[in-house]
Amino acid sequence: MKRNPRTVRRGATVGLAIASVALLTACGTAQGGGSDSGEAATELGEMEGQVSLLAWPGYVEDGSNDPAVDWVTPFEEETGCEVSTKTFGTSDEALNLMKTGEYDVVSASGDASLRLVAAGDVAPVNTDLIPNYENIYPFLKDQAWNSVDGVPYGVPHGYGANLLMYNTEVFPTAPTSWDVVFDKSGDYAGKVTAYDSPIYIADAAVYLMAHSPELGIENPYALDEEQLAAAVDLLKQQRANIGEYWSDYLKEIQAFTTGDTVVGTSWQVIQNVLESEGATTQVVLPDEGTTGWSDTWMISSESKNPNCAYAWLDYIASPEANAAATSYFGEAPSSDEACDYREDCEAYHAGDADYASQIWYWSTPIEECLDGRTDVQCTDYAAWTEAWQEIKG
Amino acid sequence: MRLSRLSRTTLGIVTGLILVIVYVPLFVVLVNSFSTSTSLTWPPPGFTLEWWGRAFQSAGAMEAVWTSVQIAVIATIISLVLGTLISLALQRFSFFGRDAISLLIILPIALPGIITGIALNNFFRTIMGVPLSIWTVVIAHATFCIVTVFNNVIARLRRQGTNLEEASADLGAGVWTTFRLITFPQLRSALLAGGLLAFALSFDEIIVTTFTAGSGVTTLPIFILNNMFRPNQAPIVSVIAVVLVVVSIIPIYIAQRLSGSEQQRR
Amino acid sequence: MTTHAPAPPGAPVPAPDRTHSPVPRPRRTAARAASVFLSTHPRTRLALLLGAPLFWLGVVYIVALVLLLVTAFWTVDSFTGEISQEWTLDNIITVLTGSLYQTVTLRTLGVALLVTLIDVVLALPIAFFMAKVATPRMQRILVIAVLTPLWASYLVKAYAWRSVLSQDGILEWLVAPFGGSTPGYGLPATIITLSYLWLPYVILPIYAGLERVPDSLLEASADLGGRTWPTIRLVVFPLVLPAIIAGTIFSFSLSLGDYITVNIVGGANQMLGNLVYTNVGAANNLPLASAIALIPIVIIFGYLFLVRRTGALDNL
């Protein structure tokens, strides 16, 4: 992110917005609607002077890794809330860390958010106290992975799709189906990659939705025993041809550059890096649709710094900060306004509701089927984890 | 046994070959730190000094090095004290349960790091209710560093026997005086060697650290791991590694000099 | 001893019998009194020496370890991730009977044993050269050369091997002219990388062990007509065996618990460490993770028990 001269002005606006909220609440007038859940904060008070964030690497950058990448300092200057950050590598790690109650705010992906809600680790969020909430894309609001019964538990941050990446030397014409990593993966034996997480089972389910309609999968995160078994079978076949599973940028980028991997799931940001290095790769969103993530900033139910936490939620949803953070991480921002501060929104299909509708956002599989079926029990995340270990063998 | 010239040369060549292999990956790291590729691809597409410049501006990296040094120093001091005490006890006394204790010291290093890590994590968080912090890392590191000090010190104690200490006691020196003037000076180089190894062990530990570090505690290995998940940071990590390797030669060399000269005096 | 008190039986520092002391009698101070007390009460001295370390290891480590093992008998609510403290053998049974765990255990054990073997084979000549052939100056340089790689971070080295072993890597580049090719990512790559990472930890104890073998012994063997190989086999080897085993404890146990290297260069394979890590980190199932952790614990204890008699535990 390049610090641009508008930072200062924008900073002032946020500061003002927050100050006015605080002022409003100080007068005891912030009793408006939206507090349909008893637990959500109804008013804000004095800033506590610090806030501790639990975030994906790259979501909270204070310039310490790269002096040019810093959207925490302006926040600290505006609000006086000193930010301390802990990063996590997987959703599950985040879940574990939130249990300690040491963090005020967490950036949760859909495969963690519901579990955080269920465990009572996060509190509902009163969006009236977050002025920037209004601008956020409607298709990100009130979704299964950030709200429960219409009660929002957080503010959407950014979203992205798990895309099919391929080496253009091996694939002169772009593949249009995920079959190159499933049914036809044998053609690229030892050079196929897949995301290393139980949630990847949903990718197989998306594929089965299109190719094995007899299984009756309606939602890739709502699989009964039989459907899960079918997905596991598919993944076990795939396993024979997998060169390696990936979970960090660097591994994936290296493997595609050197040709150790020629096809597999990837993220847009990885393609951007590869492109800048002149690698012969391309990404595509196959016809079957795909999985993806839509992350949510949530507030701990045990937060000792709720005012600073609310301030952070508002700040990170503000166009400039959101643009900076999502651009650095490599995902679409949460509002059109943020695109004013980014040049690459198009590559990420930001705001394209049609594109977004092809994405099945990560959600936590639970026993109660997410697709509304009541006659069967669905397999939960624990079952998926066990299955995933079995698949890897 | 007198080694023939041929076998000496062969041994020398084998040693040289192994060392060459040992240094190939480090050479790759060195080259990568000057490479224009951000993903450490080989061969490097071009030459740049950008990463060296950026690494020295990276406050996060500096902070992480400093955190690691702090942790390693404190953990080393604790393990020096505890390791010396326990080796004095085990070498100078024979008592019931001695074998069990020597097993107990080895356990934290012999059991895989992930087990030590989750055990301590569980212990601190759920049993003790202590929030994870820099101190939990120090405690964890000190626990598995004791063994390196213990081994060096007990080997030295065994070799030097108790004659001098007995003489000192006969001449009227108290327990403490004897330790200060006789035992400790004899142990100095063993402590140095053990301490250095403990420091290195703590400095590069990642698995136990992952499970015991609190929010905001970023040791160097954790910083490196985190940066593998960030775009365009990998070459900076290479720079840090190169600097560490170069800088580390100084303390190792000094330690070598000290223990070497001590050996010659004897 | 100035007190002239006869040393109590069993005291490790028996005072020679003296009729009179030429040393002036020291002033009586509290410190002196304590010192006298300590010299005459070895058990107290022992207790003071052992107190702090035992407290540390016992309270911090053993308690933590035992509690972890107890956790193996509990279960976890899969959705909320809370541990429920109901006693059950389910986790243990899962681990003992699941084919997944058997496969992965065998794989891990194989990797750990191979890594250990490779490390010993590599460490022996280099340690021997350092201890018995090199000049003192050369010796110092070699120790530095062996220790230096320890300071390049573990992760950096693992990623460096990833680069070396890749299809486009330096290894392919070196061996391709001779018709060879890189093993690529997988178990061989894991074994190579782990051997590399732990090599200094194996060299150091063996080197220290060899240094302790007096040269005079080797000369005696030569004088008595012992040729090089029999001398090494019959004189040197038995003397350094404990040191070798001490080195193997490092490489074996470090390999047994590793999950990061196999992630970086191991292709699609997983080891025991990954199973533990996934269950605690990803699945948040500490009870199952603890049950899996029992496997390496049992293996290590078995190994330590086997080598205990050799005196290796004193040589780490």
Automatic annotation (TrEMBL), chain A:
<dbReference type="InterPro" id="IPR006059">
    <property type="entry name" value="SBP"/>
</dbReference>
<keyword id="KW-0732">Signal</keyword>
<protein>
    <submittedName>
        <fullName>Putative spermidine/putrescine transport system substrate-binding protein</fullName>
    </submittedName>
</protein>
<dbReference type="Pfam" id="PF13416">
    <property type="entry name" value="SBP_bac_8"/>
</dbReference>
<feature type="signal peptide">
    <location>
        <begin position="1"/>
        <end position="32"/>
    </location>
</feature>
Automatic annotation (TrEMBL), chain B:
<dbReference type="Pfam" id="PF00528">
    <property type="entry name" value="BPD_transp_1"/>
</dbReference>
<feature type="transmembrane region" description="Helical">
    <location>
        <begin position="12"/>
        <end position="34"/>
    </location>
</feature>
<feature type="transmembrane region" description="Helical">
    <location>
        <begin position="64"/>
        <end position="88"/>
    </location>
</feature>
<dbReference type="InterPro" id="IPR035906">
    <property type="entry name" value="MetI-like_sf"/>
</dbReference>
<feature type="transmembrane region" description="Helical">
    <location>
        <begin position="234"/>
        <end position="255"/>
    </location>
</feature>
<keyword id="KW-0813">Transport</keyword>
<keyword id="KW-0472">Membrane</keyword>
<protein>
    <submittedName>
        <fullName>Putative spermidine/putrescine transport system permease protein</fullName>
    </submittedName>
</protein>
<keyword id="KW-1133">Transmembrane helix</keyword>
<dbReference type="GO" id="GO:0055085">
    <property type="term" value="P:transmembrane transport"/>
</dbReference>
<dbReference type="InterPro" id="IPR051789">
    <property type="entry name" value="Bact_Polyamine_Transport"/>
</dbReference>
<dbReference type="InterPro" id="IPR000515">
    <property type="entry name" value="MetI-like"/>
</dbReference>
<keyword id="KW-0812">Transmembrane</keyword>
<feature type="transmembrane region" description="Helical">
    <location>
        <begin position="100"/>
        <end position="120"/>
    </location>
</feature>
<comment type="similarity">
    <text>Belongs to the binding-protein-dependent transport system permease family. CysTW subfamily.</text>
</comment>
TrEMBL record, chain C:
<keyword id="KW-0472">Membrane</keyword>
<dbReference type="InterPro" id="IPR000515">
    <property type="entry name" value="MetI-like"/>
</dbReference>
<feature type="compositionally biased region" description="Pro residues">
    <location>
        <begin position="1"/>
        <end position="15"/>
    </location>
</feature>
<dbReference type="GO" id="GO:0005886">
    <property type="term" value="C:plasma membrane"/>
</dbReference>
<feature type="transmembrane region" description="Helical">
    <location>
        <begin position="141"/>
        <end position="161"/>
    </location>
</feature>
<dbReference type="Pfam" id="PF00528">
    <property type="entry name" value="BPD_transp_1"/>
</dbReference>
<keyword id="KW-1003">Cell membrane</keyword>
<feature type="domain" description="ABC transmembrane type-1">
    <location>
        <begin position="105"/>
        <end position="307"/>
    </location>
</feature>
<dbReference type="InterPro" id="IPR035906">
    <property type="entry name" value="MetI-like_sf"/>
</dbReference>
<keyword id="KW-1133">Transmembrane helix</keyword>
<keyword id="KW-0812">Transmembrane</keyword>
<feature type="transmembrane region" description="Helical">
    <location>
        <begin position="286"/>
        <end position="306"/>
    </location>
</feature>
<feature type="transmembrane region" description="Helical">
    <location>
        <begin position="46"/>
        <end position="74"/>
    </location>
</feature>
<feature type="region of interest" description="Disordered">
    <location>
        <begin position="1"/>
        <end position="25"/>
    </location>
</feature>
<comment type="similarity">
    <text>Belongs to the binding-protein-dependent transport system permease family. CysTW subfamily.</text>
</comment>
